[in-house]
Design goal:
The complex is a heterodimer. By secondary structure, chain A is of the alpha/beta class. Chain A is elongated and about 100 Å long. In chain A, strands 1, 2, 3, 4, 5, 6, 7 and 8 form an eight-stranded mixed β-sheet that branches. In chain A, strand 7 and strand 8 form a beta hairpin. Helix content of chain A is 20%, strand content 33%. In chain A, 47% of the residues are buried. Chain B contains six helices and seven strands; from the N terminus they run H-E-E-E-H-E-H-H-E-E-E-H-H. The chains are: A alpha/beta, B alpha/beta. The interface between A and B is medium-sized, with 29 and 22 residues.
Chain lengths: 595, 196
């Protein structure tokens, strides 16, 4: 049966959809007539030949252009595209990167680029063709808007006695092109189809999922919000906040206890019974209660260390130790309590403590500023106005900042709070706190690397990479980086990975591409026996490396043959390695999304 | 008469006991697993799997078995398996001449670079089709060793052989189980010996 799947990207559609509406929606099967705004213009790049069999890439491209124009899609002229490629000296046609994406927009006037790969072009007795295409937006940040595959075999519609058998390769290619152009035209007209189900009985045999990885495969961490706090022993107790960096679907537990020898001076310091904090699903903040013992003499500085350990369903983040300094005769200076280096966006309102080292007879006024890369308004809102007032006799007050949703998911934002010279107290040494606001609400960005190819089939690594890009795009929970951008950065970094990604290679890829996850793997078999009736065979293994931990958080191995699901008379047989790989990758990606 | 029966009975009993002792002596002892009694296996957190030695005719046999082993070991959740790319980088950085048979001092240095508690090396002795008369089947035979990176000493070793031409294959024909399934069974057997 012909295979065709569809996927679409929601986020940048706000801009692209606006273009469609303003530019005039293209009606199916009709060229917009009469005066009006110009339609969306697509540049169809030359087809990349991954078949290894000398596919007529030019014919396939012309067929694609004709099919799109027939459906009312505005396509740039071939000569215009060739002239642009020559002028900008572009030889790589399997992807676009940042500079060429802008040039396409500014010089050629293309709103998007259609990149097509011919994965299979078999001229055997039963001809077979398999194509994969994606539409990438041009402009400042190239993004994959649509991606689909279409495969057709001459005997897909053979029927009884082989009456429907197609023996001309050109007819088979035209059918595959027709399926693709129809899918793209439907997308451009605004139609959205749900992703096909993953269950096909071709799932992986071996699967690993890290227990600390969330549903989006990014690592969950639990830590103290602050490295230390300072208290007046007269308060009697302290609440030490502990935070999770994201809402989780499973409960997270972490043990805590007083640790180390940090008591200076005499007397009992505090009471803390070791215990376990439990974060229910959806909770991100809990507190540890510490009862402070009152001293009877001038004991000087005392402190207690509280440590987190043995987290379940999360990893230990930083800081994992919190020091509570208990003062009874502090001098009168004002400091910002040291805070954690990062906090989750879900924390909502965040209060930074400003502490006096001794009670004052008058109100202490502390001016302060809030700055950083987070934008005021969307990034944060200053709830406590400057200057902060610490009432007479009090030892601390808080600066409350409401953490906002921020701009679209991008690099982590920072906040910097700086104390200025106070009135009625001295400024202490701890006057600046810098925090990174971690945003886990957006979809994690995945960079898919070409698979390491151990098979006898040329380009199998690139074929698998394209299939994973397509299937991950169909899952709403991931944002896939355009493969052209990945390639550009790998070349810029002169990265050579001869056996797969190493931790040293992964670091720069995470930073340069702002990726949260890297997907890579190896392909051991990608066999399609053109001249015989033997079933195609695919054997692959895949792993996902996560940014924060630098570790593999998900891996799997899958191997299947095309005749595994045959019921009767070849019903259910998968005829090509490309279609088999498509089913296997869909099952693997479906497995990734399961807890 | 009575005298002859007593003698026959005694002889029969003596022969029975002799047969029992002989059969017990012939029972094979398990000799293909070694566990260092002084090693705290519970302290192992991260494992690096080196490229395996390939003694078979199939050029990719060692890579295929290594791929299956690494994924299955990781999926147990008991230890973290360092990715193959990181192992390759570590081999290059430490200048190991023969990664399939590293020297103890090379392993100590390598362990520090990739942050592995132990290193596993292996040998694939047999992989692929075996024939018995007109019947064919798939078989695999492999052995592995675990070496502690702190000392460079072998702390565990085991071997496993699976597949081959069974009685059912001989009787009913058929090509036996596919190679991937036989490989997974052999790796499972090795992992059982590691975690027992």
């Amino acid at each position: 049966m012909p295979s065709s799947t569809n996927c679409s990207n929601r986020l940048p559609l706000a801009a692209f959809a606006a273009l469609l509406v303003v530019g005039g929606c293209v009606q199916k099967g009709a060229v917009p007539a009469g005066p009006g705004p110009a339609p969306v213009r697509i540049a169809v790049l030359p087809v990349e030949d991954l078949s290894g069999a000398g596919a007529p890439a030019g014919e396939v491209r012309r067929s694609l252009i004709t099919g799109l124009r027939k459906r009312g899609v505005a396509v740039l002229e071939e000569e215009q595209v060739e002239a642009f490629l020559t002028k900008n000296r572009i030889r790589y046609i399997a992807g676009i990167e940042e500079s060429s994406a802008q040039a396409w927009k500014e010089q050629a006037g293309a709103d998007a680029v259609l990149i097509t790969s011919c994965e299979l072009y078999s001229r055997s007795e039963v001809p077979k063709v398999f194509l994969t295409s994606r539409l990438v937006a041009t402009g400042r940040a190239p993004e994959v808007l649509w991606m689909d595959s279409a495969g057709f075999s001459g005997d897909d519609t053979a029927g009884i006695l082989g009456i429907g058998l197609v023996s001309e390769i050109s007819a088979v290619a035209d059918t595959a092109v027709d399926l693709l152009s129809r899918s793209l035209a439907r997308f451009l007209s605004g139609e959205r189809r749900p992703a096909p189900p993953a269950g096909s009985g071709l799932g992986p045999e071996i699967v690993f999922r890290s227990s600390t990885a969330g549903l989006d495969l990014r690592e969950n961490t639990v830590s103290f919000l602050l490295r230390s706090s300072r208290l007046d022993e007269r308060k009697g107790s302290a609440r030490i906040p502990v935070v999770l960096n994201a809402r989780t679907a499973k409960p997270v537990q972490v043990d805590f206890a007083a640790s180390g020898r940090t008591v200076r001076g005499k007397g009992a310091v505090a009471t803390l019974r070791a215990g376990t904090l439990i974060f229910a699903p959806g909770e991100t903040v809990r507190s540890i209660e510490l009862a402070i013992a009152k001293g009877t003499l001038l004991e000087g500085e005392r402190s207690v260390e509280v440590a987190l350990r043995d987290p379940r369903n999360a990893a230990l983040g930083g800081p994992a130790v919190h020091v509570v300094e208990i003062a009874d005769m502090p001098p009168a200076t004002v400091n910002l309590a040291p805070a954690a280096r990062s906090a989750p966006k879900e924390i909502g309102n965040m209060t930074l403590a400003v502490e006096l080292t001794a009670g004052a007879a008058q109100d202490v006024t502390v001016p302060f500023t809030v700055s950083g890369t987070a934008a005021e308004g969307p990034g944060y809102r200053q709830v406590t106005p400057s200057p902060l007032v610490i009432k007479a006799g009090e030892l601390s007050a808080g600066i409350t900042i409401a953490v906002g949703d921020g701009e679209r998911h991008g690099p982590d934002r920072t906040l910097e709070v700086t104390l200025q010279t106070p009135v009625n107290a001295l400024l202490g040494p701890h006057r600046v706190v810098r925090l990174t606001i971690e945003d886990r609400s957006g979809r994690p960005k995945v960079a898919v690397l070409p698979f390491f190819n151990e098979s006898t089939r040329r380009n199998a690594g690139e074929i698998l990479m394209l299939q994973f890009v397509k299937e991950l795009r169909m899952q709403d929970r991931f944002e896939v980086i355009e493969p052209g951008l990945v390639r550009q950065h790998l070349l810029n970094m002169r990265t050579v990975m001869d056996r797969g990604a190493s931790i040293a290679d992964a670091g720069p890829i995470f930073t340069e591409l702002n990726a949260d996850l890297i997907l890579s793997g190896r392909i051991m078999d990608f066999e399609y026996f053109e001249q015989s009736a033997a079933a195609p065979k695919v054997d692959l293994s895949v792993e996902m490396i996560e940014r924060r931990s630098g570790k593999v958080v998900w891996s799997a191995k899958s191997h299947h043959r095309g005749d595994e699901k045959v019921l009767l008379f070849d019903w259910g047989r998968i005829k090509t390695a490309n279609a088999l790989a498509e089913h296997m990758v869909r099952a693997l990606v479906g497995k990734m999304a399961e807890e | 008469m009575i005298r002859r029966n007593t003698t026959t009975g005694r002889t029969a009993r003596a022969l029975s006991w002799t047969l029992c002792v002989a059969l017990a002596a012939c029972a094979p002892a398990v000799t293909d697993v070694f566990h260092d009694a002084n090693m705290d296996f519970g302290a192992i957190r991260s494992v690096a799997v080196m490229p395996f030695v390939n003694q078979t005719r199939e050029p990719l046999a060692a890579e295929r078995v290594r791929d299956v082993f690494m994924t299955m070991l990781l999926s147990t959740g008991a230890v973290y398996v360092i990715p193959a790319g990181e192992v390759s980088r570590g081999i290059t950085r430490t200048g190991i001449g023969d990664p399939t048979a590293p020297a103890p001092e090379e392993i100590i240095k390598f362990g520090g670079v990739v942050k592995a508690d132990v290193v596993i090396t292996g040998t694939v002795r047999e992989y692929g089709e075996v024939r018995s008369g007109s019947v064919t089947s798939q078989a695999i035979s492999l052995s592995m060793r675990m070496i502690e990176t702190r000392t460079g000493k072998v702390v565990w070793s085991a071997s496993a052989t699976k597949g081959g031409v069974s009685f059912a294959d001989r009787l009913l024909g058929g090509g036996g189980a596919p190679m991937n399934e036989v490989t997974e069974k052999a790796v499972n057997a090795i992992l059982d010996k590691l975690f027992k």
